[in-house]
From TrEMBL:
GO terms for molecular function: metal ion binding; oxoglutarate dehydrogenase (succinyl-transferring) activity; thiamine pyrophosphate binding. GO terms for cellular component: mitochondrion; nucleus; oxoglutarate dehydrogenase complex. It catalyses: N(6)-[(R)-lipoyl]-L-lysyl-[protein] + 2-oxoglutarate + H(+) = N(6)-[(R)-S(8)-succinyldihydrolipoyl]-L-lysyl-[protein] + CO2. It comes from Notothenia coriiceps. The keyword Protease does not apply. It is an enzyme of class 1 (oxidoreductase). This is 2-oxoglutarate dehydrogenase complex component E1. Its EC number is 1.2.4.2. Keywords: Calcium, Glycolysis, Isopeptide bond, Magnesium, Metal-binding, Mitochondrion, Nucleus, Oxidoreductase, Thiamine pyrophosphate, Transit peptide, Ubl conjugation. InterPro entries: 2-oxogl_dehyd_N, 2oxoglutarate_DH_E1, DH_E1, KGD_C_sf, ODO-1/KGD_C, THDP-binding, Transketolase-like_Pyr-bd. It holds the Pfam family E1_dh. It is found in: Mitochondrion; Nucleus.
Length: 1016
């Protein structure tokens, strides 16, 4: 109200703020009209601009109007008609211009004009109020008992009763007065003026029916206009007879599928869709619309609820394949431990019947962890777009389905939204559908979120939110169509909030009356949506009862037949549930095409060429920072000497793979420069804003593209995204780097639920690489440890079983493992392991504990010889010094991993113990190189075996290495521990303590009597 009065004040006084408001007419500054018939895109603006301008202008208009009402714009016509209607008796018939010019009439007219302006402003404000707040009173809850926005409050500026007109200074007598409609509404259709009564009626219909729209926070006028037009235009919600019949048929399938499962397996959990059966036609409708807009690949992610129904009726998985999942006796015949039926994924290509176009649909396998699949879906969609050159998202799109409680509660939803507009992460618009059954397990939404709607998180990216009552199937279809059109038009995210209910408990075994008695009393009374809609269409004459019953019987028969054939299934193939097939990578049976390792060395000229590009600026007139110049010069010196540091080793790996047509993508926080300022893969012109150069993309004319992208400050979202990206193709090296390895635990869910067990659960390979800076360097408890112990604990190789060596043991072992964990101590080995990752005939996740101080350590360098043709990744680096010359004299063998090697080597040299103590580096920690370790242990048969690490005893590699070392020696030789004592925090925050700890364990490592007389 005060805002409205302030506006009137501005107009009266012509204060500075007013001119802004007056620009409403087509965005141009307010100006006087000289031609009374000249049009303006905003019908209201002439009235306003005149009042703020001059009264003589108004007189000109008035004279013109008196002569012929058609002489002036309609807005003036409405304006003067209003004045005339309210003039004192006797003056109404006055047509003489001269009379008007008399002060008495003029001042009266001015007062009237003031009133009319205020009333027009009021009506405009009222229209805007509906556009902004109409959704708060929309009838969204099919049960009619809860408020979708958790609030009974009716905004005071919505006209829910006549007396509320007073809020705007209007009253009942104004209801039949006509008002000019502003250009920011489409409720008039062809009409530019409407009586107030009709304005309110149409606003109610557009904004307060079964659809509630939240969009006025979007700060783009075109987008707001687009939405207004879609929802305000009169009669826009009309469906053809054919569309209604299609919708009914889809609703029948959705409903009868759940009924069928309930009948056949009444005591099985299936997380049915009852209460939101409309989800199936909803998804199909948005896929139809997207398909006709050119989309031919849709990647979907969804939680448990309704998943089987989506597989059956949207993706069109064979029904017998779904039904046999209910047979507890059928065990998977292929690898892995499998997953429960409502987690499996699926990929299917078919013809879209509505558009007659090919469409590929995939539903990603997902864990129970709600919303975790969101970024994975986005990553996979992005990768498909990337590999298909679909730079605008016109071919490939993603759809994400959410639960109301999870959408509001899970932070990864927010993280995923924040990827949606970033150049290297955008999928050019996702349609989000929230199955808002107004409950999360047993928790009422009022206890589950602090925001009015579960969808408020989407507002951060200016996504429009369409709330819709799921018991009105046509309203839902309309909203879905508009959402798909929105995505096709603006390539931005959009959210559909399907307000529904959950007919049964959380799963079919749960009793909802324990916790939601009143809601469930209502739900029991609630007529099924299929019944309501079929009754309606029969009444409308769209279908006959007989046609309806035949359609139901037809689908029931399909289910029965599939059920019968599912009984013939003798085996289950998890492979049939693969969401991301790699057609030519494996044999037809899904096996690797070979099982031998390939050397990963490189030709000298390739090393030289990459080295030179890495130390130069391939663009002309490109001015780089002097500090970067220095780095490039020192790289050039290294190359001249056929040497490489860490950054060059990485360059060699990426560059050589790009040469072979392998796309390389490195993503993470600040990866372009590198957290430790060693990488500099993106050069910045110091004089031209935003001019950059990525030398890696200037290596060869026909190379694959290199993507290096600084990510948003997220681990969960970004790692999930990269994991999804890596699913799309085996011919790409996808790396995610944590800023410090310590931060990987905010992405723990992706690591635990997808990366470690992904292949076992979902038979799908994934070659993602995690670069996790790790090392105890006195930087405190949060910048020291990537928690190797956790990765190793999840490795599936048996600590107590000494494997048989047959064939290519290295490759066989890699094939059997769930992931590979390495800590490379040299740049060459780092390069080899990255190359091996791609040259292997299968894909496994690769966890690399990467260095910090070693990036610049003068000893941590490799020669080009170490990368020469014929060389390969060293899983273990043996001692090649004096100890190895005379192994029987060696008293102690220290096994270690990572940077501590350099500290040990230096100390050994200082203490002149190079003959007595051998130091062996385990570069591939898991799977454990049993073969190589045994060779070393046998070589130094008289020596004590020690595991040395810089991490605390309950962390690091010790718990993993020790039992395996014991297995290697058949428990005949003790394995001693040297390292930091057990601790709660990964590192001390005190530098002095840090060095003291280091000194203490170094002393033990080189005290040859340290274990004498000790028992283990
Ligand atoms: C991250 C996570 N936390 C907790 C759970 C346990 N859980 C399973 S379903 C569920 C309720 C989900 O509610 P909602 O998102 O509204 O989906 P609905 O089941 O109502 O369809 C919960 C808490 C889970 N699966 N994932
Ligand atoms: Mg819910």
């Amino acid at each position: 109200m005060s805002q409205f009065r302030a506006l009137v004040g501005v107009l009266r006084g012509g204060r500075a703020g007013g001119s802004q408001w007056l620009r409403a007419c087509g965005g141009a500054p307010a100006r006087r009209w000289v031609d009374p018939r000249r049009g303006c895109s905003s019908g209201a603006a002439p009235v306003l601009s005149t009042v703020a301008g001059s009264s003589s202008y108004m007189e000109e208009m008035y004279i013109a109007w008196l002569e012929d009402h058609k002489n002036v714009h309609e807005s003036w016509d409405a304006f003067f008609s209003n004045i005339h209607a309210s003039r004192p008796p006797g003056e109404a018939g006055e047509r003489r211009p001269s009379a008007l010019l008399e002060g008495r009439v003029l001042s009266h007219s001015a007062n009237m004009a003031q009133k009319v302006v205020e009333d027009h402003l009021a009506v405009h404000t009222l229209i805007r109020a509906y556009q902004i707040r109409g959704h708060h009173v929309a009838q969204l809850d099919p049960l009619g008992i809860l408020d979708a926005d958790l609030d009974h409050f009716v905004p005071s500026d919505l006209i829910t009763t006549i007396d509320k007109l007073g809020f705007y200074g209007l009253d009942e007598s104004d209801l039949d007065r006509s008002f000019q409609l502003p250009s920011t509404t489409f409720i008039g259709g062809e009409d530019t003026t409407l009586p107030l009564r009709e304005i309110i009626r149409r606003l109610e219909a557009s904004y307060c029916g079964h659809i509630g729209i939240e969009f006025m926070f979007i700060n783009n006028v075109d987008q707001c206009q687009w939405i207004r037009q879609k929802f305000e235009t009169p009669g826009i919600l009309q469906f053809t007879k054919l569309e209604k019949r299609t919708l009914l048929a889809r609703l029948i399938r959705s409903t009868r599928f759940e009924d069928f499962l309930a009948r056949k397996w009444s005591s099985e959990k299936r997380f049915g869709l009852e209460g939101c059966e409309v989800l199936i036609p909803a998804l199909k409708s948005m896929i139809d619309t997207s398909s006709s807009a050119g989309i031919d690949s849709v990647i979907m992610g969804m939680p448990h609820r309704g998943r089987l129904n989506v597989l059956a009726n949207v993706i069109r998985k064979e029904l017998d394949q779904i039904f046999c999942q209910f047979d507890p006796k059928l065990e998977a015949s292929d690898e892995g431990s499998g997953d429960v039926k409502y987690h499996l994924g699926m990929y299917h290509e078919r013809i879209n019947r509505e558009t007659d176009k090919n469409i590929a649909l995939s539903l990603m396998a997902n864990p129970s962890h709600l919303e975790a699949v969101d970024p994975v879906v986005q990553g996979k969609a992005k990768a498909e777009q990337f590999y298909r050159g679909d730079t605008q998202g016109k071919k490939v799109m993603s759809i994400l389905i959410h639960g109301d409680a999870a959408f509001a509660g899970q932070g990864v939803v927010y993280e995923t939204f924040h990827l949606s507009e970033l150049p290297s992460y955008t999928t050019h618009g996702t349609i989000h559908v929230v199955v808002n059954n107004q409950i999360g397990f047993t928790t009422d939404p009022r206890m589950a979120r602090s925001s009015p709607y579960p969808t408020d998180v989407a507002r951060v990216v200016n996504a429009p939110i369409f709330h819709v009552n799921a018991d009105d199937p046509e309203a839902v279809m309309y909203v879905c169509r508009v959402a798909a059109e929105w995505r096709a038009t603006f390539n931005k995210d959009v959210v559909i909030d399907l307000v529904c209910y959950r007919r049964f408990g959380h799963n079919e075994m749960d009793e909802p009356m324990f916790t939601q008695p009143l809601m469930y009393k209502q739900i029991r009374r609630q007529e099924h949506v299929l019944k309501k809609y079929s009754d309606r269409l029969i009444a409308e004459g769209v279908v006959t009862l007989q046609e309806y019953e035949e359609e139901v019987a037809k689908y029931d028969k399909i289910c029965e037949e599939a059920y019968a054939s599912s009984k013939d299934e003798k085996i289950l193939q998890i492979r049939h549930w693969l969401d991301s097939p790699w057609p030519d990578f494996f044999t037809a049976e899904g096996e690797p095409k070979s099982m031998s390792s390939v050397p990963t060395g490189l030709k000298e000229e390739v090393l030289q060429h990459i080295g030179q590009t890495a130390s130069s600026v391939p663009l002309d007139d490109f001015k780089i920072h002097p500090g970067v110049s220095r780095i490039l010069r020192s790289r050039a010196d290294l190359v001249k000497n056929r040497q490489m540091d860490w950054a060059l080793g990485e360059y060699m790996a990426f560059g050589s793979l790009l040469k072979d047509g392998i796309h390389v993508r490195l993503s993470g926080q600040d990866v372009e420069r590198g957290t430790f300022s060693h990488r500099h893969h993106v050069l910045h012109d110091q004089e031209v804003d935003k001019r950059i150069c990525v030398p890696m993309n200037h290596l060869w004319a026909d190379q694959a593209p290199y993507t290096v992208c600084n990510s948003s400050l997220s681990e969960y979202g970004v790692l999930g995204f990269e994991l999804g990206f890596a699913m799309a193709s085996p011919n790409a090296l996808i790396l995610w780097e944590a800023q410090f390895g310590d931060f990987n635990n905010t992405a723990q869910c992706i690591i635990d639920q997808f990366i470690s067990p992904g292949q076992a659960k979902w038979v799908r390979n994934n070659g993602i690489v995690l670069l996790l800076p790790h090392g105890m360097e006195g930087m405190g408890p949060e910048h020291s440890s990537a928690r190797p112990e956790r990765f190793l604990q999840m490795s599936n190789d048996d600590p107590d079983h000494f494997p048989e060596f047959s064939g290519d043991f290295e490759v066989q072992q890699l094939y059997d493992c769930n992931w590979i964990v390495v800590n490379c101590s040299t740049p060459a080995n780092y390069c080899h392991v990255l190359r091996r990752q791609i040259l292997l005939p299968f894909r496994k996740p690769l966890i690399i504990f990467s260095p910090k101080s070693l990036l610049r350590h003068p000893d941590a360098r490799s020669s080009f010889e170490d990368l020469a043709e014929g060389t390969k990744f060293k899983r273990l680096i043996p001692d090649v010094g004096p100890a190895s010359q005379n192994p029987s004299q060696v008293k102690r063998v220290i096994f270690c991993a990572g940077k501590v090697y350099y500290e040990l080597a230096r100390e050994r040299k200082q203490q002149k113990l190079e003959k007595e103590i051998a130091i062996i580096r385990l570069e591939q920690i898991s799977p454990f190189p049993f073969d190589l370790v045994r060779t070393e242990a046998e070589k130094y048969r008289n020596a004590e075996l020690v595991w040395c690490q810089e991490e605390h005893k309950n962390m690091g590699y010790y718990d993993y290495a020790r039992p395996r070392l014991l297995t290697v020696t058949a428990n005949r030789r003790p394995v001693w521990y040297v390292g930091r004592d057990p601790a709660a925090a990964p590192a001390t925050g005190n530098k002095f303590t840090h060095f003291n700890e280091l000194k203490r364990f170094m002393d033990t490592a080189f005290n040859l009597n340290a274990f004498t007389g000790k028992d283990l």
